[in-house]
Design brief:
Layout lengths: L5 E2 L1 H5 L6 E5 L9 H8 L6 E2 L22 H10 L7 E5 L6 H11 L5 E4 L2 H7 L27 E2 L1 H6 L7 E4 L3 H5 L16 E2 L15 H9 L7 E4 L5 H11 L6 E3 L2 H5 L13
Parallel strand pairs: 1-5, 2-3, 2-4, 4-5, 6-10, 7-8, 7-9, 9-10
Helix pairs in contact: 4-9
Length: 281
């Protein structure tokens, strides 16, 4: 059975000769070069590097947010270049307790590749377990993979959908940003502070324990229970990245059916006619 949400460091270390591809997607919103620097210094042996701004995002227009979805065929081509086939198990990792590996998870789900999981605890858990890292870059795949795209449009909603359902009790907008950014008290990334009117706040970091490992499915089910039917939930954040971390947590908890507003806050505020709100949820 493939891993489809989280995978432990031990399982990755002991997977043997099975066709797995490991992707390092560490990143920093304040320093786009940091991920590559960290990878070059030390990464999990055999891991490839994915650049969040280029490999995991599409072209920016100034109106479609900071991390628009990539063209699905281009993203699939990137995975094929790593040797990914339809039956390949993908494991994505970041620093641990972060959002960037969840972006890989979501994009793979979106193009119809379900055998993708996030390394629980990220590279921090790998190192804590005593496993080796390397500075040697992984050689290119000998042959490109044979990966087919089966786009799942039902996982994504657009700004028009969100705007037309602002007052719909059957739709719950769940914002994954920290509470101070949500309230408009401390906006550090986007030019406008606040949140989408009617949105609820669930900081994605609350899905992890202090040791950066994900909370249990039972804990997460309780945490998300107050937001109603999973099918009514639309995740968003600053640019659609940490929104995927909340969706992943729900899937891990057995709460399937939620969606992501990919453009999120950074796209929402690009149109000055859209309503804004500040203050707590």
């Amino acid at each position: 059975m493939p891993f489809t949400t989280f995978v432990a460091a031990r399982s990755l270390h002991e997977h043997g000769d099975m066709p797995w591809v490991t992707i390092d997607c560490r990143h920093a919103l304040a320093d786009f070069s940091l991920g590559r620097q960290l990878y070059d210094a030390a990464h999990i042996p055999g891991a490839y590097f994915a650049d969040v701004e280029n490999d995991l995002s599409g072209a920016k227009t100034g109106k479609n947010g900071r991390h628009p979805l990539p063209d699905p065929d281009r993203f699939a081509a990137f995975l094929r270049s790593l040797g990914v086939n339809d039956d390949t198990q993908i494991v994505a990792y970041d620093a641990g307790g972060d959002m960037f590996a969840a972006r890989v998870w979501f994009l793979c789900q979106w193009i119809g590749h379900e055998a993708v999981a996030v390394l629980d605890g990220g590279i921090a858990a790998w190192i804590a377990a005593g496993y080796e890292t390397t500075a040697e870059r992984t050689p290119p795949a000998l042959f490109p993979g044979k990966l087919h795209v089966h786009l799942r449009d039902e996982l994504v909603v657009e700004a028009d959908f969100v705007e037309s359902h602002l007052h719909d009790p059957e739709v719950r907008i769940l914002d994954a940003r920290a509470a101070d950014r949500f309230a408009g008290e401390n906006e550090t990334v986007d030019p406008v502070a606040g949140h989408i009117p009617g949105a609820h706040n669930r900081w994605f970091k609350d899905n992890y324990r202090e040791n950066l490992l994900v909370r249990s499915p039972d804990e997460l089910r309780v945490a998300f229970a107050g937001y109603g039917d999973p099918a009514s939930i639309v995740h968003q954040c600053g640019s659609g990245v940490s929104a995927a971390a909340n969706m992943l947590a729900m899937e891990y908890a057995g709460l399937s059916g939620s969606r992501v507003y990919a453009g999120s806050w950074s796209e929402w505020i690009a149109d000055p006619s859209r309503p804004l709100a500040t203050g707590p949820a």
